[in-house]
């Protein structure tokens, strides 16, 4: 065996040369890997005793993509397309041996090989669109030639991988290997040589793309189908244009068009934001004073207190990953209603083909309902999800303290309340954390893990580990009213209502945020969540919100009552402006003595977003978030901030903190309202010409 570079070796097994890459953790196609691949190919081609080549990877996966830390740096040859050209033009057959994931540049390597074999657990895909990019090493030109234009569009624009069996049916894999992958790949290469099979160069395959020529409706219909979910993103349209080039242009010209589109995206603000967010999400998993080897509580069984919307959704999260969960409620009627909602959710998924009937029954069997609180005694993790009222929560925790096993982690799903006060209701505050799921809990990926003053490292590490096991993105936050996400949301909400009082209407405010990239505006979101939720919290705190409270007093709680800020037709969630709401808003303005005026869309945007940034600065200065990028992760995953704008703190840096600070000062000067006082951190960074991410 010859070690070509620290990460690439060359060996020969009989007549088959084997190039093995070992670049943990995911065999990224870093510069030293590309050098090793090129050198290995050249040596193997020069070896008269080698009749075929196998490209394989050590460790847990085939190439899982490019090394994105190289993006934005001067390119170093050989570039990946140059390496792939050597592979594809090889006069000797080259076989890719795939396990784990062949993603992005990894799948592009495989597509340049003449043959591809893989294990049944392998997954293959081109996820570059999730970084605001497109496959830039021939993926948009080769994949349609193998799987067809429609399937290639679906894979490239969604970025979602497919399994090995589907890949085999599509012709993306030539053989599924049982047992040892490398031995199977070598045996396959030996057969190719023995049978003198002609080389299968994907670049020369025309049948699949020829079928799409003269059929522009394939692309127009696809654009129409994805328009809603890709609104605001630049990369999906570039991906479609690249696949169009594969159909319309000769291969080399198609590659040139792909490269042109790739470079446009690489330097776009959208891709820069999405690449920033990729790293931000990974940083959020790191807690400076809790090392990765911190002992955690293994969760073999969970319990949820409360069978309402949140409790049922949280129970589904556990059942979805095979963890038995006990749901406790004080009312038989509430328990049966809650479990009925869970079943209907699963059956709706089955009706859409996402689950089998067996899956539904298997998951329901993992969820046991009871009225007996002592049933949580064998749970490793207990999550409280009762009404958002402190006396109720403290009573629940005092009772849990008596029945939960001593080593169990006790968590509250509170969205605003003081976790330390809740923990103090027990004799073991070190075992209490907040686990703030977002609604609907079985869908939303964000999990705020609230670290109380006395919470142990084990309790926090356990909550983080459980969150990841449930498929969530957990982010540690500190104890304060609303934690991070809702605390910032509250500032936006204050201005949203003031905008109504001063001259705007709900439909204008919502439209401005939707055009910015949010899936919905604050008033449509309030209708979806239920206006009564915030009403109950405000009453508990002794505060009022004139327009919101007036609607609640009229029983207008949002979608569930058919009316809130908007009116909803039966069975239809489309918000429709309601003259009655406009009448109420005008009435509130008169009662407050406010002279209404026309408000520009730009003012609406600034007054909604700048206070959020200002509050984010306070949160950072108080240490309630570990880093600015954690705030961005919370807002993208929990509140629908458009990922192509990076998150509120990243976006603020792009706007310029001095611009935001000066605008806050101007509003403070005009109104005298302390609400507009710039946070000290924002003030300081603005003066220094720095950003939140420069700290």
Tell me briefly what this model is.
With 695 residues, the chain is of the alpha/beta class.
Layout of secondary structure:
Blueprint: E1 2-5, E2 8-13, E3 16-21, H1 31-46, E4 52-57, H2 80-88, E5 94-98, E6 101-103, H3 105-112, E7 115-119, E8 123-125, H4 139-147, H5 149-158, E9 162-163, H6 164-170, E10 175-177, H7 181-194, H8 207-210, H9 217-226, H10 235-248, H11 251-266, H12 269-283, E11 302-305, H13 309-320, E12 325-328, H14 332-351, H15 357-365, E13 367-370, E14 381-384, H16 390-403, E15 409-412, H17 419-423, E16 432-437, E17 446-451, H18 457-469, E18 473-478, H19 485-502, H20 506-516, H21 522-529, H22 531-541, H23 546-553, E19 566-567, E20 576-577, H24 579-592, H25 601-622, H26 628-639, H27 648-655, H28 657-671, H29 680-688
Parallel strand pairs: 3-4, 4-5, 5-7, 6-8, 7-10, 11-12, 11-14, 12-13, 14-15, 15-16, 17-18
Antiparallel strand pairs: 1-2, 2-3, 8-9, 16-17, 19-20
Helix pairs in contact: 1-2, 2-3, 4-5, 4-10, 5-10, 10-11, 12-26, 13-14, 14-15, 19-25, 20-25, 23-24, 28-29
């Amino acid at each position: 065996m010859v070690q070509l570079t620290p990460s690439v070796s060359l060996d020969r097994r009989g007549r088959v040369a084997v190039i093995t890459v070992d670049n943990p953790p995911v065999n990224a196609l870093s510069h030293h890997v590309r050098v090793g691949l090129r050198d290995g190919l050249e040596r193997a081609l020069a070896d008269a005793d080698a009749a075929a080549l196998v490209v394989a990877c050590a460790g847990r996966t085939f190439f899982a993509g490019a090394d994105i830390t190289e993006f934005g740096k001067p390119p170093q040859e050989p570039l990946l397309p140059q390496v792939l050209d050597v592979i594809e033009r090889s006069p000797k057959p080259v076989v890719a041996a795939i396990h784990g994931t062949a993603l992005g540049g990894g799948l592009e390597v495989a597509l340049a090989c003449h043959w591809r074999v893989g294990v049944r657990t392998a997954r293959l895909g081109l996820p570059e669109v999730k970084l605001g990019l497109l496959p830039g090493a021939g993926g948009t030109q080769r994949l349609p030639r193998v799987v067809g234009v429609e399937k290639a569009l679906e894979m490239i624009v969604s970025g979602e991988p497919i399994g090995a069996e589907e890949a085999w049916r599509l012709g993306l894999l030539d053989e599924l290997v049982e047992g040892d992958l490398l031995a199977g790949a070598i045996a396959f290469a030996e057969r190719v040589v023995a049978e003198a099979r002609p080389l299968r160069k994907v670049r020369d395959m025309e049948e699949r793309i020829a079928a799409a020529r003269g059929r522009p409706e394939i692309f127009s219909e696809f654009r129409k189908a994805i328009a809603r979910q890709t609104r605001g993103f630049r990369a999906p349209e570039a991906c479609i244009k690249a696949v169009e080039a594969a159909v319309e242009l000769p291969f080399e010209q198609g590659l040139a068009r792909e490269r042109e589109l790739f470079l446009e995206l690489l330097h776009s603000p959208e891709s820069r934001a999405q690449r920033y967010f990729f790293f931000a999400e990974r940083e959020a998993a790191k807690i400076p004073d809790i090392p990765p080897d911190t002992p955690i509580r293994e969760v073999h069984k969970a319990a949820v207190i409360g069978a309402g919307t949140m409790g049922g959704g949280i129970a589904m999260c556990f059942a979805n990953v095979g963890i038995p969960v006990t749901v406790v409620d004080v009312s038989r009627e509430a328990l049966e209603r809650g479990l009925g909602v869970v079943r209907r959710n699963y059956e709706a998924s089955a009706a859409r083909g996402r689950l089998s009937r067996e899956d539904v029954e298997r998951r329901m069997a993992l969820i046991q309902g009871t009225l007996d609180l002592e049933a949580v005694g064998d749970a490793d993790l207990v999550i409280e999800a009762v009404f958002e009222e402190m006396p109720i929560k403290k009573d629940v925790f005092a009772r849990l303290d008596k029945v939960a096993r001593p080593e169990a982690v006790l968590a509250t799903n509170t969205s605003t309340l003081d976790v330390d006060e809740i923990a103090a209701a027990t004799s073991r505050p070190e075992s209490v954390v907040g686990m703030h799921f977002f609604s609907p809990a079985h869908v939303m990926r964000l999990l705020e893990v609230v670290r109380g003053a006395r919470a142990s490292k084990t309790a926090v590490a356990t909550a983080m580990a459980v969150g990841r096991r449930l498929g969530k993105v957990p982010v540690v936050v500190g104890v304060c009213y609303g934690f991070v996400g809702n605390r910032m949301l509250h500032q936006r909400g204050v201005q949203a209502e003031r905008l109504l009082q001063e001259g705007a209407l709900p439909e204008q405010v919502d439209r401005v945020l939707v055009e910015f990239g949010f899936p919905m505006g604050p008033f449509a979101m309030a209708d979806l969540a239920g206006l009564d939720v915030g009403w109950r919290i405000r009453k508990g705190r002794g505060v009022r919100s004139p327009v919101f409270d007036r609607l609640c007093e009229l029983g207008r709680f949002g979608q569930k009552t058919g009316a809130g800020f908007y009116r909803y037709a039966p069975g239809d969630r489309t918000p429709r402006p309601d003259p009655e709401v406009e009448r109420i808003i005008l009435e509130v303005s008169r009662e407050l003595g406010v002279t209404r005026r026309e408000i520009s869309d730009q003012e609406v945007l600034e007054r909604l977003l700048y206070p959020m940034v200002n509050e984010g600065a306070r949160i950072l200065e108080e240490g309630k978030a570990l880093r600015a990028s954690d705030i961005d992760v919370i807002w993208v995953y929990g509140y629908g901030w458009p990922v192509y704008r990076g998150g509120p703190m990243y976006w603020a840096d792009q706007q310029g903190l001095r611009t935001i600070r000066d605008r806050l000062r101007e509003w403070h000067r005009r109104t005298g309202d302390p609400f507009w006082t710039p946070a000290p951190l924002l003030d300081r960074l603005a003066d220094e010409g720095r950003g939140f991410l420069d700290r």
